[in-house]
């Protein structure tokens, strides 16, 4: 009987640990937190009634850098139709981000999550991670990593659908 | 419920043992340090070439890292 009790207790603790680990991970359909609440370094654009793409990146991350031309294309295609892209840098050194942005000019907002509060809130586990947030403020799609043209096509299709284009 | 948990030594093991381990998750933003060029084993091509040359001269074996030669140490 004691053995059974022990096993049950172990099971309870294991399930509780697993649930707490998964609790922070947002899913499609969840409400995306307000970016204004996280004291991000840089200027946030007006996000009201916009479809928002939030991309987490860092200057030392190869796939992140490879994804930038796709975001530039996305911006050029949809910015005037209601899309806003916010690139959130997770660089620990502000100079690294600024150095990269000096060499790579981007037409969309680039801010820095200096204290990583937003990244912690969203349980970011790898970069690039891209959230596409609908006009209703809910997460419409979530991409981990960057798979080149296939990811670009997916991003364009998802954003186009959300904008009704 | 309290007795149930206290009696269960396996529960305590599960809770206490991880606290004394050195396990630590590396957060994505901390990986910049690991991605730095100085972390690369082959960051100095001349150094790598020299090390490989010494290796195949002494061990009569080479390969695996792009260094040519038959192990004679003469090239």
Q: Please, could you describe this protein's structure?
A:
The complex is a heterodimer of chains A (165) and B (75). In chain A, 41% of the residues lie in helices and 18% in strands. With 165 residues, chain A is of the alpha/beta class. In chain A, helix 2 (62-78) runs parallel beside helix 5. The longest helix of chain A is centred in the N-terminal third of the chain and has 21 residues, at 2-22. Chain B is built from 4 helices and no strands. Chain B is elongated and about 70 Å long. Chains A and B meet through helix 1 of A and helix 2 of B.
Sequence-ordered SSE layout with sheet pairings:
The complex is a heterodimer of chains A (165) and B (75).
Chain A: H1 2-22, E1 51-57, H2 62-78, E2 83-89, H3 94-103, E3 109-112, H4 117-121, E4 129-133, E5 139-144, H5 149-162
Parallel strand pairs in A: 1-2, 2-3
Antiparallel strand pairs in A: 1-4, 4-5
Helix pairs in contact in A: 2-5
Chain B: H1 2-6, H2 9-16, H3 31-34, H4 45-59
Key descriptive features of the protein:
heterodimer; A: 165 residues; alpha/beta; 5-stranded mixed β-sheet; 5 strands; 41% helix; B: 75 residues; mainly alpha; 4 helices; elongated
Portion in strands of chain B: under 5%
Structural class of chain B: mainly alpha
Helical content of chain A (DSSP H or I, runs of 4+): 40-55%
Report the end-to-end length of chain A measured between terminal Cα atoms. Answer: 64 Å
Q: What's the tally of helices of chain B? A: 4
Measured on Cα atoms, how large is the radius of gyration of chain B?
25 Å
**Major β-sheet of chain A, in short?**
5 strands, mixed
Hey, which two chains have the biggest interface?
A-B, 24 and 17 residues
Q: Counting H and I runs of at least 4 residues, what is the number of helices of chain A?
A: 5
Q: What are the segments of chain A in which pLDDT stays under 50 over at least 5 consecutive residues?
A: none
**Mean pLDDT across every amino acid position of chain A:** 89
Counted beta strands of chain A: 5
Order of helices and strands of chain A: HEHEHEHEEH
